[in-house]
Amino acid sequence: MYDAGKVILGIVVFLALVTFPLWYNLAGEASVTAPELEKAEGSQCVEDAEWMRGHHMDLLDDWRDEVVRDGERYFVGPDGQRMEKSLSNTCLSCHVNKDKFCDRCHNYMSVDPYCWDCHVIPKEVM
Amino acid sequence: MNLFFSLVVIAVLIALPWVLVGAAGLDYLFGVIVPYVALAVFVVGLLMRVLQWARLPVPFRTPTTCGQQKSLPWIKPSRLENPHSTLGVIGRMLLEVLFFRSLFRNTRSQLRDGSRLTYLADKWLWAGGLAFHWTFLIVVARHFRFFLEPVPWCVSVMEGLDSFFQIGLPIIYLTDVIIIAALTYLFFRRIVNPRLRYISLAGDYFPLLLLLGIAVSGVWMRYFDKTDIVGIKELSMGLVTLGPVVPEGIGVTFFIHLFLVSALLIYFPFSKLVHAGGVFFSPTRNLANNNRVKRHINPWDYPVKVHTYEEYEDEFRDVMKAAEMPLEKE
């Protein structure tokens, strides 16, 4: 083999990059399984859990636009109950703990939603 | 025909997981076995190609010279375009690998006023290629949020910059838009230009379509047909920590995405895509142009038995003297 030193150095760098996730996760000793979410206090969400898992951000985005731009502050839930379109007052009244609900998945997936740029977390006010 | 063949292969690659996961429920095959096999083929195949290249001797310096060679002290040498030192070669390789310096020289010939041949700078291929390669790198790096727990800060920073303009929700990644635009351009470039279409092979269309399929299926999952992203991270974390699990409820789009990526990994070492490793082995780029400074001896030169003139004269001195031939030594 010609230029063995350089070629082997390149191969070592390549293998280190490819196997990097293995070493990193072994060294970190962090749990590799999905996070547990805290049970909600209410019995009925505005949509079913399956839909909410994928689309909660769409719902919140729509709510924000409807409330802020059109002034439509209320909606009728699936059980006929009139509710306020509000992250802090409606969502977080059942999912009381942001740390144990929102943040668990967001941290696991490295998602940094900008909700809290404007909204205050209710617990912090109290 | 080449285009048609590539399209059929892509359609089959998309249909396989669609049918076999969606209808036959072969989650474990497509979620665990195929990705492991693909990664093994990618790593072993690439190493074999690299070792094969490394076994070939390059006895002479054959760099393409694109500037003034190192010469007399008062003539300014072009250190990057015609490097004479290792440092210059490293600079040249960095320019080549990171910014595609040689493609930047691309020209287009054109007849003007009927008969006058002119050459024009043509930067479109360079721009499209650069846009694709860099966004692809960023997209791959962003995917490390699925492979690392906890997610390192550099990945989060990259995501933050990539979603800088906060358009839509989930926020649209700028690289998603650029990579699809670049790949679409590179693909249609081959179809629209008749001369390019004439020289394009299945091996040119297929990788572009495959990458486009990967990008579109990824975008489709993120923005349109939502999949259980937490379940996907469980699967990917299981794969990289060698304890594979396939959680329930992952949409079939994800398996199509994963299968196309696996196909790319398997295809990589045996196709033109291997230029990722090959660029480091190109003798026209990675050698210093120092032929006039240093003697490079061919390693496979046969050891020729030489008979010098001195020895010849010693052998035939008497005969030559008798014939009155001029001698160097009396």
Order of helical and strand elements of chain A: HHEEHHH
Please count the helical segments of chain A.
5
Which shape of chain A, going by the Cα principal axes? elongated
Rg estimate of chain B, integer Å: 29 Å
Tally the helices of chain B: 13
How does the major sheet of chain A shape up? 2 strands, antiparallel
What topology does this entry show?
The complex is a heterodimer of chains A (126) and B (330).
Chain A: H1 4-28, H2 49-70, E1 74-76, E2 82-84, H3 87-94, H4 102-108, H5 122-125
Antiparallel strand pairs in A: 1-2
Chain B: H1 2-22, H2 27-54, H3 86-99, E1 107-112, E2 116-121, H4 124-142, H5 153-162, H6 174-192, H7 194-199, H8 202-224, H9 229-240, H10 252-267, H11 275-278, H12 283-286, H13 309-322
Antiparallel strand pairs in B: 1-2
Helix pairs in contact in B: 1-8, 1-10, 2-10, 4-6, 6-8, 8-10
Describe what this molecule looks like in 3D.
The complex is a heterodimer of chains A (126) and B (330). Chain A contains five helices and two strands, in the order H-H-E-E-H-H-H. With 126 residues, chain A is mainly alpha-helical. Chain A has a two-stranded antiparallel ribbon with strand order 1-2. In chain A, strand 1 and strand 2 (82-84) form a beta hairpin. Chain A is elongated. Chain B has one domain (2-302): Transmembrane di-heme cytochromes, Chain C (Fumarate Reductase Cytochrome B subunit, Up-down Bundle), CATH 1.20.950.20. A two-stranded antiparallel sheet of chain B has the order 1-2. The longest helix of chain B is centred in the N-terminal third of the chain and has 28 residues, at 27-54. The chains are: A mainly alpha (126), B mainly alpha (330).
